[in-house]
Amino acid sequence: MARILDKDTRLIDVDFGPVTVNISRTALSEFPDGNPGNQATFGGNGTNQFIRSDTGGQLTAGSFIQFVRLDLDYMTMNNEVMQPVEVSVQRSASTPYGTHENGNNFNTIQEFILIASRPLNNADIAAAVNPYDSFNDIGLNRGTSAFGGDDAGGLTHEQNIYAERRQYAWTNTTGATLSNGELVSQPAQTTLASIFSAPQLLDINTWGSLSAITGPNLYCYRIVYSEMQSFEANQSIFTNVGLGGFTSIRFPPVNVAFLCKDPGYTEGEYLTRLANAMNSIPEGGSTA
Q: What are the φ and ψ backbone dihedral angles of 85, each rounded to 5 degrees?
């Protein structure tokens, strides 16, 4: 619900709860296969917001998607037209943190925040083999049409209120490995080749229109795409170490807040923005 600051100003925010990911991979496995001791498990308050979590059987084991529908009925029923003019994204930590043993340090972890004025097709997101890469292109007019629903098209710039993409990676400054000289192979120790703490933040990119919040809902997603204990086998080029791996990592809570003001639009301007923001609601399937 919108918080009233004054007669022309509202504050709208959404909270994504923290998620802890534990991933175990047995020796010689290309990725966790989903069996006990060779899978990803999830914990924390944020699991109540899951529409998808990959436990095993694919390279994306340990990835997840949270979803929150933000009810704006209060504003809609009061005939209030508010536009977001500022956005604030707050975390209790700038990166996820934990421990990471014998894992994939080559692929980055990607984290997306997406706030839209129309829903994606959540059923398609939950069923897709690997939906995560598509979020790199969602929210611009010539981006992907994935998860748009039946003939609904992709999420347009006007419908994308805010989107953010962060990349994290482990580096030798926060780890010890056989290759960088901080671990030494011992005849009796054959289970550890690398151990890392928190990954580092590589990049932040944001996009979106800060366009009309027209109600009755906002559709909010947090996507974490990771291959922390997966590495594609290509025996003609390399052979990965024949050791099992374990990652325990915690993604902190995230708060996204919008400061919204009345822009003083005419009725025609308001109706045009409303049409642009809502004209591609998916039909013919479960959405949000």
A: -115, -20
